[in-house]
Design a protein that fits this description.
611 residues, alpha/beta, Rossmann fold, six-stranded parallel sheet, 24 helices, 36% helix
Length: 611
């Protein structure tokens, strides 16, 4: 006779999660972020309280930003650990939809557990219930379906016997990794069931290393041997595979230049002479030059997003071919690529053996040297500062770089800084964390929090603009309460400077982006330092680059977050590097500026090659 234990469904869920282990012998789900409401406080809340000695619970300020912290944690831990996030039904649940989309785009594991309506329907309609006039099974959590890798609605306790293992399988599958949503009906959370004792035995989940099809290896080797001028595009898959050493060894053995995507930056130290920086829209001059001349593009763990490809104008050689090494067949076959569906570490090792002593001519090292000389000038401290001088984003990045150490992680997500950082930041190994798959404003503060939780030994520097800070800053208070220190460099250009520049580049007038161009009666004078200090952070406003550098040094001695505010100008951005981005310009308009922008757009569209 099978031995059983009687538990509520919620108690069973978290007991089961507490014994799911990774290959390092650590709990895969590190803990649970929770904001309680009537849809989860009774069932899930009681269950989490009862298991807090084995599975910790943390209280956040906003469901979306709690999930952002969890996602940043999983990314920093290279998808080998994750966190869960629970909310009530209604707005608590829908607050997490943006975070689910972010995790989905970036292929990152997070377990989302929103409360849901009553499965028994007795009290329908309950508070916050969305009623569909034509579908009695529809609830607000159906919003999670398109942004989840796996979605399930728990309407019976025993559903967990299959739903939970499926959830873990998805989160630990390197090819299908992403967010899982288990919508948990609130009455079912509290229902008891006789669970098999065996269900709660400790289990280790291995992250498999997919072996290649020998025929695909042969195709890729043949293409590599036929090429004269290849370039490697290193994506985030290199980091998730743990293939940094194999990538560097492969590049050195065969003398192939490397460019890095936003997700792949930091896979190779910036000082390595084969590292040519970034390609595409936010590309270095030397990276874009080598991408334009390459006759073979070897993508490793990249989705070939439009910023990487310059909207498919960066790889301009008419004879070029594309190879895509990826665990996901969906990504490996994009844009007519020669696919190699395989783990990055395995692929690089096999390919290097097959290539033997095959080496290519030196890439253009002079172009790389010229780029770093140019970027030195952009990053240098301004010759003089005064009351009427506002530093650029490049000046700010230069200041942080001069004070950064080998253990510094630069992070950001949206606005001007992601592009400027990809072009200018000189990343040591694992010294870069950018959320640029979804480019989600509001990720920054919570993301920095999550990185520091995952890597307490690192110095985490969060770059955030005034626009993103205004969208989501409340987890700063949580970090203060939990004594999790990191440094925020808050650049205030008094609006959405990045999109204001894009608006003008596309032929538009300055409108509704900067405060000065918005329909308001009074120009705001927001004291961001006072705001951050009110949440308990150490906060100060500095008057220039020298003051910023001094504040960065003293921030290292604190056990709470530090927020350093600095006014910046909004016109320049990175100031150097870059390529074209396909943002459609109106075909018809009245201004000469718009007509010129459209002509420029059409000329670049003619350069696009998608296969």
């Amino acid at each position: 006779m099978t031995e059983t234990i009687r538990l509520t469904a919620a108690q069973a869920m978290f007991r089961w999660l507490s014994v799911q282990m990774n290959e390092d012998g650590e709990r895969f789900i590190e803990g649970v972020w929770a904001i309680f409401g009537h849809g989860n406080v009774a069932g899930i809340g009681e269950a989490l309280h009862g298991i807090q000695d084995r599975l910790p619970t943390w209280r956040g300020q906003n469901e979306q930003t709690m999930a952002h912290a969890a996602i940043a944690y999983a990314k920093t831990r290279r998808r080998r650990k994750a966190m869960a996030v629970t909310s009530s039904i209604g707005p608590g649940a829908t607050n997490m939809v943006t975070a689910a989309a972010l995790a989905h785009v970036n292929r990152l594991p997070v377990l989302l557990i929103p409360g849901d309506v009553f499965a028994n329907r007795r009290p329908d309609p309950v508070l916050q219930q969305i009623e569909d006039f034509d579908d009695g099974t529809m609830t607000v959590t159906d919003c999670f379906r398109p942004v989840s890798r796996y979605f399930d609605r728990i309407t019976r306790p025993e559903h967990l016997l299959t739903a939970l293992p499926r959830a873990m399988q998805v989160m630990t599958d390197p090819a299908n990794c992403g967010p899982v949503t288990l919508a948990f009906c609130q009455d079912v959370q509290a229902e008891a069931y006789d669970w098999p004792q065996s269900f709660f035995e400790e289990k280790t989940w291995r992250i498999r290393r997919l072996e290649p099809d020998p025929r695909e290896i042969d195709d890729v080797v043949a293409a590599l041997k036929a090429a004269r001028n290849p370039v490697i595009v290193a994506g985030g898959g290199v980091l998730y595979s743990g293939a940094e050493r194999e990538l560097l060894n492969f590049a050195k053995a065969h003398n192939i230049a490397i460019v890095e995507t936003q997700a792949g930056k930091g896979a190779v130290d910036w000082k390595e002479k084969l590292n040519f920086g970034s390609p595409g829209v936010t590309g270095t001059d030397c990276g874009n030059r080598i991408a334009a001349s390459a006759d073979l593009i070897l993508g490793i763990g990249t989705r070939f997003q439009d910023f990487t490809t310059g909207s498919w104008t960066a790889f301009a050689n008419p004879a070029r071919k594309l190879i895509s090494i990826n665990l996901a067949g969906y990504d490996a076959a994009k844009h007519g690529a020669i696919p190699l569906v395989c783990d990055a570490r395995v692929a690089l090792t096999r390919l290097s053996i097959s290539l033997g002593n095959h080496r290519y001519a030196d890439p253009d090292f002079a172009a790389r040297d010229a780029w770093f000389k140019l970027s030195d000038e952009a990053l240098a401290a301004p010759a003089q500062e005064g009351a009427n001088f506002l530093p650029s984003d490049a000046h700010v990045i230069g200041a942080v770089l001069r004070q950064a150490g080998e253990n510094t992680v630069a992070m950001c997500a949206a606005g001007t800084m992601p592009g400027a950082l990809q072009v200018l930041w000189r990343a040591a190994a694992s010294g870069y964390h950018m959320e640029y798959g979804y480019s989600c404003m509001g990720y920054e503060v919570a993301g920095a929090f999550g990185i520091k939780l995952a890597a307490p030994e690192k110095e985490v520097i969060c770059f955030v603009g005034d626009g993103s800070y205004m969208m989501a800053n409340s987890e700063l208070a949580t970090a203060v309460m939990m004594r999790v220190p990191f440094t925020i460099v808050l650049t205030d250009n008094r609006g959405y400077g990045c999109i204001n520049r894009l608006q003008q580049e596309c032929g538009g007038a300055e409108f509704n982006n900067m405060y000065k161009d918005s329909n308001i009666e009074v120009q705001p004078e927001i004291d961001f330092a006072a705001h951050a200090a009110s949440m308990g952070a150490h906060a100060l406003k500095v008057s220039g680059i020298a003051g910023l550098e001094a504040a960065l040094v003293t921030a290292r001695d604190r056990d709470i977050p530090t927020v350093i505010v600095i006014d910046t100008e909004a016109l320049t951005g990175a100031g150097i590097g870059g390529g074209w981005w396909d943002v459609a310009v109106p075909e018809v308009g009245t201004t000469e500026k718009l007509k010129q922008a459209r002509a420029h757009y059409e000329a670049n569209v003619a350069r696009q090659r998608i296969n």
